């Protein structure tokens, strides 16, 4: 089928174009049913302590497997969930699922594991978020320190709301980290006054760390900044050995990325990490 698009311009429409341009209205109706249909599963990516090689923390990353759309990447369905408000029930499902996994691993003797959960900006501004988290911790008999909350700089734009939410979360005792640090609304002011435990260096700085002097300088500076403020620091998106060597040389505490492991199922974490 050929449609005319202005004078002398033609665009071709093929039936398989849905794959490149997903039908978001149809996708939304599937996303709405995804929890009930059991279509979500959490994957976990190890975070490696560089000095010791120990792995005690994992980032939880949501996966959606749908009949019609197949494996939809979070980069596609998370923004859709944010726009439609579906992120609220989905986010609660994630918190409960992660807390159940923590309880399961603790029962198996791994008491010192921590899991980091991504919280989207809309979810972060829900006033009952601390209660939702507390409920999940209590149900699964977990210490709050076994749960880490990852928020992006974008969630902190409304500084007063963000500060009061962070204080409530901190009172609960959960660990707080800033995801994709350095890519958003970066104000040094919030680092001074917000109760932040960890900075996650965005993968865009890590990618060319060995060849781009500016990326190397920014990475080093974030590491010093974190240490001088008494925060932990972790590098994201580490894919190569050279990057690990650089990060070790500048005393980055932890790293996460395909070099060590892709995000994998809980079963694979057990086989490859916990019982390796
Ligand atoms: P993020 O939190 O910054 O997560 C890191 C992303 O980088 C993940 O993509 C991860 O699979 C990927 N990654 C890890 N190591 C490497 C590496 O070495 N190289 C490269 N190129 N990529 C690496 P993923 O799983 O597709 O998630 C994308 C984003 O979707 C996440 O970015 C996060 O913002 C969001 N997301 C994922 N799961 C959840 C969730 O449960 N809730 C919410 N609200 N957002 C989520
Ligand atoms: Mg994250
Ligand atoms: Mg990130
Ligand atoms: Mg991200």
UniProtKB/TrEMBL annotation:
Residues 24-276 form the EAL domain. It comes from the Bacteria. This is Diguanylate cyclase/phosphodiesterase with PAS/PAC sensor(S). The lineage of its organism: Bacteria, Bacillati, Bacillota, Bacilli, Bacillales. The chain holds residues 413 to 688 of 688 of the full protein.
